[in-house]
């Protein structure tokens, strides 16, 4: 039955080639069969793994997830512990080890630090996508990158924009950091700093459900970057108030990433999910061809 089905498909392709020829288009039937076979013989669609950043959770990816699933992709958005670069990267690395076949790894914001380290040495990761994200070189930290260029709303006195809460088993001097919701001096508040461009009602929900980020994670240096050996893509929000757009562009250029700029704040995965999804799909198609 399989052989018969193959003959039937080829017959249909040949019929299409004949129709094109009668229409005056010079197409070789052999070429059409070869092109159809090549398309059919592409490798499996990669699994898309989405990694959220600080003060967020996996639900922030929902608008992107629904689009990718509609296009037939298997998508996973595992929780990011937000405990530290090495800890979070190892957690993700262990999760990736459970996935068979090619993977496109996507990170938003601090998630970019995590995927840069977790993908190193994993031959299944075929592409990296950074969405309004840190794309660190070896030894760089979140705090260092934030301060590299002016314009970040999270480089002021921490007491103005962070609420610090001790967590069980925390090292001496470490805390869980929550973004304050209300404006305070130079700090614009959660809505204008972290969620600018998000409808106010949704921004209030994000603020209420934010997941904290261990302060120590901001000063932990990144390891050897996976983008040195894995092709990368970057979405740069030109109205981002957390990671200055100029710094995002500089990091993406250094990594040799395919850059897409979008008029959006730090949460383009929520405000411009179609653009973010299109970039992920570009990376996925390139992964299949690699």
UniProtKB/TrEMBL annotation:
Keyword flag Ribonucleoprotein: no
SUPFAM superfamilies hit by this protein: alpha/beta-Hydrolases
Single GO molecular function: hydrolase activity
Domain AB hydrolase-1 as annotated: residue spans: 48-277
Source species, domain of life: Bacteria
Pfam family of the protein (one): Abhydrolase_6
Keyword Hydrolase: yes
Signal sequence region: 1-28
InterPro entries named among the record's database cross-references: AB_hydrolase_1, AB_hydrolase_fold, Sec-Metab_Biosynth_Hydrolase
Keyword annotations of the record: Hydrolase, Signal
Protein's UniProt name: Alpha/beta hydrolase
Lineage of source species: Bacteria, Bacillati, Actinomycetota, Actinomycetes, Streptosporangiales
């Amino acid at each position: 039955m399989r052989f018969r089905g193959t003959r039937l498909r080829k017959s249909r392709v040949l019929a299409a080639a004949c129709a094109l020829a009668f229409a005056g288009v010079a197409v070789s039937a052999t070429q059409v069969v070869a092109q159809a076979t090549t398309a059919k013989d592409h490798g499996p669609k990669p699994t898309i793994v989405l990694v959220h950043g600080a003060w967020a959770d996996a639900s922030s990816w929902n608008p992107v997830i629904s689009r990718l699933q509609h296009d037939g992709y298997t998508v996973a958005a595992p929780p990011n512990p937000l405990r530290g670069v090495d800890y979070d990267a190892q957690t993700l690395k262990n999760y990736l080890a459970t996935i068979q076949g090619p993977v496109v790894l996507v990170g938003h914001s601090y998630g970019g630090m995590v995927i840069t380290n977790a993908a190193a040495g994993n031959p299944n990761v075929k592409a990296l996508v950074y969405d309004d994200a840190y794309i660190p070189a070896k030894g760089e930290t979140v705090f260092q990158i934030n301060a590299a260029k002016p314009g970040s709303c999270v480089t002021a006195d921490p007491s103005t924009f962070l609420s610090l809460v001790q967590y069980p088993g925390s090292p001496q001097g470490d805390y869980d950091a929550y973004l304050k919701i209300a404006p305070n001096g130079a700090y614009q508040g959660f809505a204008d700093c972290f969620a600018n461009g998000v409808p106010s009602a949704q921004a209030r929900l994000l603020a209420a459900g934010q997941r904290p980020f261990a302060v120590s994670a901001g000063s932990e240096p990144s390891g050897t970057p996976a983008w040195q050996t894995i092709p990368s893509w970057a979405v740069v929000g030109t109205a981002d108030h957390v990671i200055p757009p100029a710094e995002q562009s500089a990091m993406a250029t250094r990594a040799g990433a395919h850059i897409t700029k979008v008029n959006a704040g730090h949460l383009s995965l929520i405000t411009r999910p179609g653009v973010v999804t299109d970039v992920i799909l570009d990376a996925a198609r390139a992964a299949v061809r690699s």
